[in-house]
Structures are given as C-alpha cells and as structure tokens.
Fold this sequence. Notes:
Number of strands: 35
Shape: globular
Strand order of the largest sheet: 1-3-6-5-4-7-8-2
Number of domains: 2
Helix content: under 10%
CATH architecture of the largest domain: 6 Propeller
CATH class of the largest domain: Mainly Beta
Amino acid sequence: xxxxxxxxxxxxxxxxxxxxxxxxxxxxxxxxxxxxxxxxxxxxxxxxxxxxxxxxxxxxxxxxxxxxxxxxxxxxxxxxxxxxxxxxxxxxxxxxxxxxxxxxxxxxxxxxxxxxxxxxxxxxxxxxxxxxxxxxxxxxxxxxxxxxxxxxxxxxxxxxxxxxxxxxxxxxxxxxxxxxxxxxxxxxxxxxxxxxxxxxxxxxxxxxxxxxxxxxxxxxxxxxxxxxxxxxxxxxxxxxxxxxxxxxxxxxxxxxxxxxxxxxxxxxxxxxxxxxxxxxxxxxxxxxxxxxxxxxxxxxxxxxxxxxxxxxxxxxxxxxxxxxxxxxxxxxxxxxxxxxxxxxxxxxxxxxxxxxxxxxxxxxxxxxxxxxxxxxxxxxxxxxxxxxxxxxxxxxxxxxxxxxxxxxxxxxxxxxxxxxxxxxxxxxxxxxxxxxxxxxxxxxxxxxxxxxxxxxxxxxxxxxxxxxxxxxxxxxxxxxxxx
Length: 483
C-alpha cells in the first residue's frame, strides 16, 4: 500500500559518464518532458566531456546563477546552474524551502534535481555542499495537483449503512484516520462508522445508545491507534470516550477524578446559543509528554494524566467554539487551535482565527491567559472571509477540523468557504488547495479546477498525505490525493 518513487541507481564505481547521461535523458523524457530541458542538459553533458573529473573545491565558494524552469509540480526536472558544484550528486543537497529534493546528477556547473512533494507554494531554492550553503535570488512557484474521488455516499442522507460504500446514505460530520488504512466518520444520526480503505467495507462501530455523540471530532492516538473523543454538555464535563481496535472499537468512557484549577475557573455549563462552556469536543494525545489535552468552550486548556485521571487547567484561551485542534508533528508540544465563527461577545475577537500555544509552558498572564498563546492569523475580522497569502493577512470563515501532514503542513477545513486551505508552517503562507471559495456547490469529483464541496465539516490526513473530507451537505466522504 505504500506509495514510493522509484529511481535508477548508478552502479557502484560508475563515474558520471554515458550511463548517467542516458539515465537523466530518459528520466527527463519519462517524467515531464519539460520544454528545452533535454537540450540544456545535453549541452551540459557535451561540455562535461571536456573534464570528466570535475570535483568540488571546499576552498572556493559555490556560485549560483540561475535555474530552470521557475515553476513546476512534484517530481519536475529542475536544472540549477552555477559553479563549483562538483560532479558527485551524493555530496550535493538541494532544498526547496526546507524540503530536500532528489539530486539526480551534476556536471560541476549544472545540477539536475527533482521537485519534492509539497514544499510550499512559493519556494526559495538553495544548494548545500560540504559546509557551504547558498540561496538563489529568484523564487520557484510550486504547482499543486489534486484529484478528488468519492469513497462513500450516494448523495442521500437517510442513514442507511448496509448497502456498501457506493450506495450507503449518510451525512458525515467529523472524520479521523489511523495508521491501518481505516477512516472513521461521525454520522449525523449519532452513529460512528469505520471505512476500511483496503477492503472497501463500511461498518458501524458505535451508536447513540452506547453514548456516542457525532458532534465530537475523533482523533487516532499516534502510538496506539486508539480513537479518542471529548464530550458535549455540562453533564459530560468530566467524560472522555475511547475506542480501542484491540477491543473491536468498543466504546468505553473514562472520567476525570480530580481537578487542579491552577487559579482558573472550573468549566461550567454557562454560555448562550450553541455555546456550552463545559463542552470539550476533542481529546488529543501529546507525544511530548504522554498526556491528554483538551480545550473547553469556556477557554480552559486542560492537561489530563492518562494514568491517574487527574486534570490540571494549565491556562486560558479566548472563549468560543473550536472544533479544530492539532499538535504540530515537528514541534510536538505546539498546539494549533482553529476557532469557529460562533463565539460570545467575550470571545468575538477569536472568531475565524488560528492560534498556537506551547502546552509545556504553564505561565499565565492577565485573566489567566497563557503567555505562550499567539494568534498567528492576525488579521482582525470576526465576520470572516477568504484570502490567501501570508498567514498574517489570511481570512477564514467557519473553521472546522484542522489536521497536519507529516511534513508540518496544516490543512484547514474552511467550512463556510466550502474549500480546503493549506498553511505551510515554515513559510506561514496560506493557499486554497481545492474547492471554489465562498460557493456552496453541488457534488463534483475530478481535478483541482473542477471538484466542489458544500459545507465541509471534517478533514484528516493519513500517514501518506492523502486527505479525507466529510462533505456534509453533499452527503459524501471524499478522498483527495494532493501532489
């Protein structure tokens, strides 16, 4: 099931000669057939024949002059020109932002590399050889390709689950994925569904009668694959739900035994409209300290010891609904929070905003707000909207689930914009991956330019970067392969 890229490998002892030249020419033609690329590379090879033993000189600077093309997709062939590269590709590293590219060959003055997957929409290219690293002055534009298919649902929502994936009738709300190719969907009738993407089967694993609540986004423990959820309502303030695959995903409840308020107020049943301050929709496992973390609608960030079930409020965040919480895979103590558009007046400034905080830092400031809390989408607009570009200027509307891929890209279910956004957390740039912003469109699968969504609620990435979406008003579970 693992997807992988396959490259020819030079035989041990080969120099950069005819074998490599034919290999690179073949690869260029096979992969992308970039206009003029073959001619450029053959010219380099002819020049290189005059000096078969070009070597990198650590006493001389590497020089970067230009690269071609200036935009492309995954596995695009890129020619990087300069001097003092040396002809040993294994000694050369090429980066698109922080993502390392595959270096196929080098003549000493020209490197042939392959564009890595998802380095960001705007890239700085750099070359590192030995202790030297330099950047090109011009930027590379990464072009994203995406294809959307439906894996479950026929467009009706009469809650029929025994007709197979193509003919089932469901209204998906939130979604999770584990490491065993299972996708889990909370269905609007308080039923929890498991989709096995290997066997293409659908099964019910929990129901309302067992205490299941579809409004609580699930997450899969990264170490154990156990599914974890918070709970809704004042009567469920201390409750968490777990479904362990070793027990056939039987739903079991655990309860907080003792509270350390740490100077804060205990979560209560206050609130107005859709807000219940004692609700805590998610339960996340933190790999940095082995604790569970949740956030209450009242703003409390709570750390729960899974051994003793003692809870500590580490500090406060603005009041409001947050269906999206996720830990950064490369900074495991860094929690990202996506606020919905629904807030009370006391938390209105947080609406449609994205925040980060460090759960390892309990330091509190005024009104017990955690000092590590940062609003990273800093443009103030409680009314929301749609705008790509730098995260400080981006606009969202009705953030639902958020989820990281293994490279640290954050995918945002932009519910009322009916599209999926991606935040490159290295460059802090936001781009719309797929969907027509602001348009609630009838169902349509296909390529990035034509696929549409209607009020998407759930979004999750699997370990291979495939995205699954709960397309709420289109009554379908969708699969997005992005490159």
